[in-house]
Amino acid sequence: MVRLEQGVSRGGLVVGVVMQAWGTMMVILTLLMVATVDTKIYGRCNLAMKLEEAGLNGFLGYSIGDWLCVAHYESGFDTSFVDHNPDGSSEYGLFQLNSAWWCDNGVTPTQNLCHMECRDLLNRHILDDIMCVKQVVSSRNGMNAWNSWTRHCRGHDLSEWLKGCKMHAKPDIERMTP
């Protein structure tokens, strides 16, 4: 009888450990779902409209096509995208704003020129992202601050980025610079 009770006790212990592990896993999954529920992968035209509404069309001479091109090559229009650099800094959100210069991630020494936390760049609410990219493009480098713009967008016909989008913005193909 003592052995049976010990066997039941051990079996109960195994079941208890499995249930505790299952519960821990469910808590982790729930937290991950909550953390990502406010993110968004924008459609091209939907993002174009948001950028236009926020005043980026023509801002310092750059078109919505410029901004869409950068966002596509930087993040694939994914607000939750984070990239880690060899220097220890990270880049956040639609426009991949760097933690050493534009936002504070609590890890990287930063200039925090946009006066914001990097995690605020990872949600569907992109007005703060837009305010920060206006700051970036207002710096002496302009859109050259993004290597992707220099490689993929500068000097190219950006009208394709607006094709099929029902909006007021029109591409500025005369401004294309080599």
How is this structure best described in words?
- By secondary structure, this protein is mainly α.
- 43% of the residues lie in helices and 4% in strands.
- It has helices spanning 2-36, 44-53, 64-75, 127-138, 147-153, and strands at residues 82-84, 90-92, 97-98.
- A hairpin with a 5-residue loop joins strand 1 (82-84) and strand 2.
- The chain is globular.
- It starts with a helix and ends in a 25-residue tail after the last helix.
- Residues 1-8, 13-19, 27-34 and 173-178 have low confidence and may be disordered.
Query: What percent strand?
Result: under 5%
Model regions low in confidence, pLDDT < 50 over at least 5 residues? 1-8, 13-19, 27-34, 173-178
Order of helices and strands: HHHEEEHH
The gyration radius over C-alpha positions equals 23 Å
- Order of strands, widest sheet: 1-2-3
- Biggest β-sheet description: 3 strands, antiparallel
The count of DSSP E runs of length 2 or more, i.e. the number of strands, is 3
Mean pLDDT: 84
Helix content: 40-55%
Gross morphology:
globular
Q: Which structural class is indicated by helix and strand composition?
A: mainly alpha
Number of helices: 5
Q: Report how far the terminal alpha carbons are from each other.
A: 88 Å
Condensed summary:
With 178 residues, the chain is mainly α. Helices cover 43% and strands 4% of the residues. The protein has a three-stranded antiparallel β-sheet.
Keywords:
178 residues; three-stranded antiparallel beta sheet; globular; disordered N terminus
